[in-house]
Design a protein that fits this description.
Pfam families: TGF_beta, TGFb_propeptide
Number of helices: 6
CATH class of one domain: Mainly Beta
Number of strands: 17
Main location: secreted
Bound molecules: 2-acetamido-2-deoxy-beta-D-glucopyranose
Keywords: Disulfide bond, Glycoprotein, Growth factor, Secreted, Signal
Protein name: TGF-beta family profile domain-containing protein
CATH architecture of one domain: Sandwich
Strand content: 25-35%
Structural class: alpha+beta
Shape: elongated
Order of helices and strands: HHHEEEEEHEEEHEEEEEEEHEE
CATH topology of one domain: Jelly Rolls
Oligomer: single chain
Radius of gyration: 28 Å
Family: Belongs to the TGF-beta family.
Length: about 375
């Protein structure tokens, strides 16, 4: 039997000690509380199926599925070992630059693409640890046989735009070259990565982000390859050179110190069989479909959240993990049940899970969340 959404609300009430208002209102306020603990001001409403979404990059799936990812780990819980930096949030920020514009006026026979990454998805409290540009090149040669004879390469230049260009002004004056390198084109997809951390930090300031310009120029040993573009060359019906499809994303690793407590080690004490009405952790599976969140949470689809339930009877045994205060409270309760209630059965040890989701800008985010699973209960 799978508990429905109401169990989540019930659990939340138990966890937070909020008294019952109207059911709908309560559910809404619980949702807000939960989302804010995830660092979200509102429930993400991704564009949905009518708009193409950034697919989940395989690197993120790997990190999400990495063994030990969802369990308590030894050492620093706020380090992203894949990138060797501190952090607990990994975002694939989608490129929102204008699409490939075709032959540019500022350089003959080259292709320019604007890249724009909206850095305001990062909350001000987050410390930026890494911003890495990933450019994926997907190239389909027209004539595969010729590819073998003349390997193709592109000269790639990346500029940062330092101010907007007014109409009629020279756009070159408003950009600064960041990096220039050649890229070999292969029938297999390949990619180039670049560390843009200082620049991305600067982009976080209001009015400082004018994006990047990516310029691609075919590098060829054979000068005739550019001839097919001349009119009147009837023999060449198809272009000798096609530009690759470019997919750009910015991998942003950041650290939210408020959500970065070190995890406690599992204790070796084991609880013996207790009567079922006594305080203990009960299993509860939360299905994100039940809370209506399946459209923005990519994975997991649900998880074992568990909850605490049961009595804290007198005398409070050691296995109930009571505080001295709780021991005395049960004593007082046993003497006069009407004046003092029993202590509460509450979570005393929780563990984190990882979640992959789309934020409001349709970026893919991998985040580790503390206190998502009840491991142990106690009387408090
Ligand atoms: C960037 O994102 C923020 C919030 O998600 C939005 O308010 C803002 O308009 C976006 N900026 C651009 C240039 O798209
Ligand atoms: C009390 O803590 C021990 C270990 O610390 C744990 O095994 C036990 O389940 C806890 N008691 C309850 C009621 O969860």
């Amino acid at each position: 039997m799978r508990p429905r959404a109401s169990s989540l609300a019930l659990l939340a009430v138990c966890l937070l000690g909020v008294s019952a208002v109207s059911h709908v209102e309560e559910k809404r306020s619980q949702e807000r509380l939960f989302l804010s603990s995830l660092g979200l001001s509102e429930r993400p409403r991704p564009a949905g199926s009518h708009q193409p979404r950034l697919h989940v990059p395989s690197a993120l799936w790997r990190m999400f599925r990495a063994p030990g990812n969802t369990q308590a780990q030894e050492g620093d819980p706020c380090t992203v070992s894949e990138y060797g930096v501190r952090g607990n949030i990994i975002r694939y920020v989608r490129d929102q630059g204008r699409p490939v514009s075709g032959w540019s006026s500022s350089c003959q026979a080259c292709l320019e693409k604007q890249l724009f990454f909206n850095m305001s998805v990062l909350q001000p409290v987050e410390l930026l640890s890494l911003a890495q540009l990933e450019l994926g090149f997907l190239w389909k040669p027209f004539r595969p046989a010729e590819l073998l004879q003349h390997p193709r390469a592109l000269s790639m230049s990346l500029y940062k735009v330092i101010r907007p260009t007014l109409r009629g002004a020279d756009p070159q004056a408003n950009r600064r070259l960041l990096v220039s390198q050649s890229v070999w084109l292969q029938p297999e997809p390949n990619s180039v990565t670049m560390n843009l951390t200082p620049l991305a930090e600067n982009w976080r300031k209001v009015g400082h982000n004018y994006g990047l310009i990516l310029e691609l120029l075919p590098l060829s040993t054979d000068s005739e390859e550019l001839l097919p573009f001349q009119p009147g060359n009837a023999l060449m019906l198809e272009p000798a050179f096609t530009f690759p499809l470019i997919q750009a994303s910015l991998v942003v690793v950041s650290l939210n110190l408020h959500q970065c407590r070190s995890r406690q080690k599992r204790s070796a004490i084991h609880l013996h069989v207790t009567p079922s009405n006594v305080c203990k952790a009960r299993s509860l599976y939360i299905d994100f479909k039940d809370v209506g969140w399946q459209d923005w949470i990519i994975a997991p689809q649900g998880y074992m959240a568990n909850y605490c339930h049961g009595e804290c009877p007198f005398p409070l045994s050691e296995s109930l993990n009571g505080t001295n205060h709780a021991i005395l409270q049960t004593l007082v309760h046993s003497l006069d049940p009407h004046s003092t209630p029993q202590p509460c059965c509450v979570p005393i040890r929780l563990s984190p899970i990882s979640m992959l989701y789309y934020d409001n800008n349709d970026n893919v985010v991998l985040r580790h969340y503390q206190d998502m699973v009840v491991d142990e209960c106690g009387c408090r």
